[in-house]
Amino acid sequence: MLFRSLILYFCVQVLCLDYSKINLPNDHLPYYFYNYPKIGQQCETDSDCPYTYVHSDKCWGYEYSCTWENQYSIPSCPGDHRGWVKTKFDQQNTFYTQADFGYIKQQLRELKVLCEPLFPQDSSLECSEHMRFCRGRNIMINFTSLLTRDEPLRYKMDVLKEGEIGGFCEFHQEQLHAETDQISPLQSWGPELRYFTKLNKRPIQEGDCDITIEKPTYIMKIDATVNMYHHFCDFLNLYASIHVNSTHWEAFSTDVHVLIWESYMYYSTFEGAWKAFTEYPLWDLKTFMGKTVCFKNVVFPLLPRMIFGLYYNTPIIYGCERSGLFKAFSEHMLHRLHIPFHKRKDSKIRVTLLSRVTKYRNILNEDALIDALRENNSYSVQKVVYNKHIDFKTQIELTHNSDVFIGMHGAGLTHLLFLPDWAAVFELYNCEDENCYLDLARLRGLKYVTWEDKTKLMQEDEVAADHVENHAQFKKLLDNYSYHDEL
Ligand SMILES: *[C@@H]1O[C@H](CO)[C@@H](O)[C@H](O)[C@H]1NC(C)=O
Ligand SMILES: *[C@@H]1O[C@H](CO)[C@@H](O)[C@H](O)[C@H]1NC(C)=O
Ligand SMILES: *[C@@H]1O[C@H](CO)[C@@H](O)[C@H](O)[C@H]1NC(C)=O
Ligand SMILES: *[C@@H]1O[C@H](CO)[C@@H](O)[C@H](O)[C@H]1NC(C)=O
């Protein structure tokens, strides 16, 4: 008995990795194993490992040893850069740094140790420039004084005061203060970390904390949870931050906590999306109000409203499209949320019209439009309404199984993130904010068409359909099912 449990123990410690902590789409595994070849090699010999390790040179693009040819994605820049840069390569590289895995690389290169551990049990704090991304070990946060706050906390820059966050480490105070130059709630971690203090003893060892959080924790300042465009900006930045912090084979694990930096109870129709990141209920400031909490491992992720951040209001170089970061994010979410891709029954182009049953911005002649589309035998047309009566995952599934996605200007168009690579988005009447979904479609690498002239509506639609039909990936898909002869 003792012998058996010893073997089991040994196994847990050395051999039997919990492979469920990897849980990535198959297409991402070569990139994952590039960074953790030891895990890959162990996988080769371990019958419990669900993955086949194939040695490859493919890398995400932010690794030091990664070459331009081997990276996950190379931006496509068919258009003119309108004078931003000198060469085609500069144009691609600019896009790569602004909106692709080059953005992660930039964050990694910027990381600076602001509080330095001298011994393994010490605290540590590292941040990228302007405190856009930070991570720490053995960090103490004192939430005691929150008990005296009456007002609910959201987008507040005074959640913490001097001395309410700190660690036992060699503190480079001036360097830290030099980085606190973007003080705004969702732009940086400056509003919180400007109050970082050097403690005179190790908080965990000395018993200063009421609670010690062992598991890695992401502390998140989030945008508007009611709006898909804004909330998915939070999720994209969280995904990007996992890559920034992926120095450990368990980096993508959901065995982590998320603490929302608000005292409001979290509510969102998109709540299901968190399942891609954590297997635990979300925490908020109320969870720890009145307590001093030590985090053994904490990440302060990239924020949704950073200057030159992603993807809100960011100028992105002209002429380029198809960010690998956005594609990987989409695939990661689809995989983690178990969204199926249905086998096609025919070669028809699947057209989905997103209907809005609100007072404003309804598509007035919606039914006429649908009838007209249905007249064309090459289309399979469905009208959908995405509201609280349809489960969020079902919505994503409907979107993911569309080739052409038609919708009025509005946050629902954020669904385009989950369309297949060959898809086209047709935005009807882009009334305000002209570029917002055009840019998102560009980042995701999709064809974008908009209604410019009512009389040309059907022509615009054919532009979208033609794009799908002529897309290499779509052709391959149909070839695979041998539908090409039915066309
Ligand atoms: C936390 O802050 C309170 C005051 O708000 C203070 O009384 C307490 O000593 C602090 N705890 C630690 C461990 O510093
Ligand atoms: C961040 O990276 C560190 C390694 O540098 C790792 O120990 C920690 O678990 C990671 N944090 C999260 C939240 O994954
Ligand atoms: C039907 O749609 C296809 C694909 O867009 C297009 O090529 C064709 O001309 C359309 N047929 C009619 C009758 O409009
Ligand atoms: C083609 O079909 C095979 C077997 O059904 C499948 O594994 C493969 O992913 C398909 N390829 C494409 C491009 O759909």
TrEMBL record:
Query: Does Magnesium count among this protein's keywords?
Result: no
Recorded GO molecular functions are: protein O-acetylglucosaminyltransferase activity
The protein's annotated catalytic reaction(s) are: L-threonyl-[protein] + UDP-N-acetyl-alpha-D-glucosamine = 3-O-(N-acetyl-beta-D-glucosaminyl)-L-threonyl-[protein] + UDP + H(+); L-seryl-[protein] + UDP-N-acetyl-alpha-D-glucosamine = 3-O-(N-acetyl-beta-D-glucosaminyl)-L-seryl-[protein] + UDP + H(+)
Signal peptide annotation: 1-16
Question: Which Pfam families does the annotation name?
Answer: Glyco_transf_61
Instruction: Give the GO cellular component terms, alphabetically.
Output: endoplasmic reticulum lumen
Q: What is its EC number?
A: 2.4.1.255
Q: Which UniProt keywords apply?
A: Endoplasmic reticulum, Glycoprotein, Glycosyltransferase, Signal, Transferase
What domain of life does the native source organism fall in?
Eukaryota
The residues covered by the Glycosyltransferase 61 catalytic domain are 320-425
Among PANTHER family, the record links this protein to:
EGF DOMAIN-SPECIFIC O-LINKED N-ACETYLGLUCOSAMINE TRANSFERASE, GLYCOSYLTRANSFERASE
Q: What is this protein called?
A: EGF domain-specific O-linked N-acetylglucosamine transferase
